[in-house]
Amino acid sequence: MSGARLGRVLVLAAASSLVLAACAGGGGGSASGGDVTSVKIGFMGDLTGESSAIVIPPRNGAKMAFDEYNAKNPKVKIEMLPYDSQGKPDQATSLITKAVGQDKIVGLIGPAFSGESKAIGGVLEENKIPSISPSATNPGLASNGWTYWHRVVANDNDQGPGIAEFLITAKSPKKAFVISDDQEYSVGLAEAVTKTFKDKGVTVENDKFSKDASDYSSTVTKVAAANPDVIVYGGYYAQAGRLLKQLRDGGVKATFASGDGSLDAQLVTGAGTQAAEGAVLACPCNIPSGDVTGTLKTFADNYKKSASADPAIYATEGYDAATAFIKAVEAGNTTSEKINEYLKTVNFEGVSKPIKFKSNGEPENNSIFVYQVKDGVLKLLGPSAEAKLEG
After folding, report:
1. Which has fewest Cβ within 10 Å: 7, 186, 256, 363?
2. Rounded to 5 degrees, what are φ and ψ at 207?
3. What's this model's pTM, rounded to 2 decimal places?
4. What is the pLDDT of residues 112-121, one digit of tens each?
5. What are the chain's domains?
């Protein structure tokens, strides 16, 4: 499609939701008012980039939910279209233009990360496309006045204090060193952690490096000189693994902690098993483990069959985000605006948590869970208010 033609389509879409309503679902919808037999829901996130391990599980969870729904031969089927942003805001901006103008999606699961969510939130709002992120946690996303934006995870104003308060209880630190890179998510989480430490009387020093840097010697030197009791990095596992390795190689032995962006086995492989041992990770996600029962066990068993892998970070949240869209469609809503209206009232017991949205798109449930690397494996310690550090 030519740039000029695509621009005209977007103008029409922004001017009237009728364009999206009439065309939604491709083969099912028609401008002459024919019955809708299918709708398209997008999934956007890093599917092939350096942080894809955080995004593939929620993609798999969402796909599983839609596959289960479509297998029931419903009146209106749902087609999930993947958009691989590689976590890059500029790439997400290009993809959402195609998703809205050419593919005619009526909803979006994602974007997965905060930076890309910020970059395209206005476009989704302008075109009246409801979105549900399974993993974007930057607090500022809820402050834009967007009425089509939602997420099913607690934000970093919950996650940051959860990390800091857990470390205060577990380690009684007098001094902390908080590090971020220059990504939206990383900066937001680091700021939330820093504020909580200071509010609780802990002395804090900070440093920041470029996401694309590979040599963190300047940061390591500053941390070593500060001699903190605990270190918190707000960022993703690709950077966290390298940082943790370089910190340990530089003789820094303080407890290392990070958030959901680092909750992946590649943190351990990136840092090395010895360097990663004892690292603390927090996440507004409850990853099913081997001893779960009931709904979580059913989900875990079905996910393993569907994805040929054990459930990982945000797999349940991806499933729940898809389920919210499924319930909207089951209730007879096939246009983006009607789906969005339904999401204002949706209220169900999800796999990850009860799913209900506040008026600003935030989830009603904001639990934070703590994990620790033990013998090279990520182990769930429990909710942050109850978890006990091991070792």
Report:
1. 7
2. -150, 160
3. 0.82
4. 999 999 999 9
5. 3-154+293-356 (3.40.50.2300), 156-283+369-383 (3.40.50.2300)
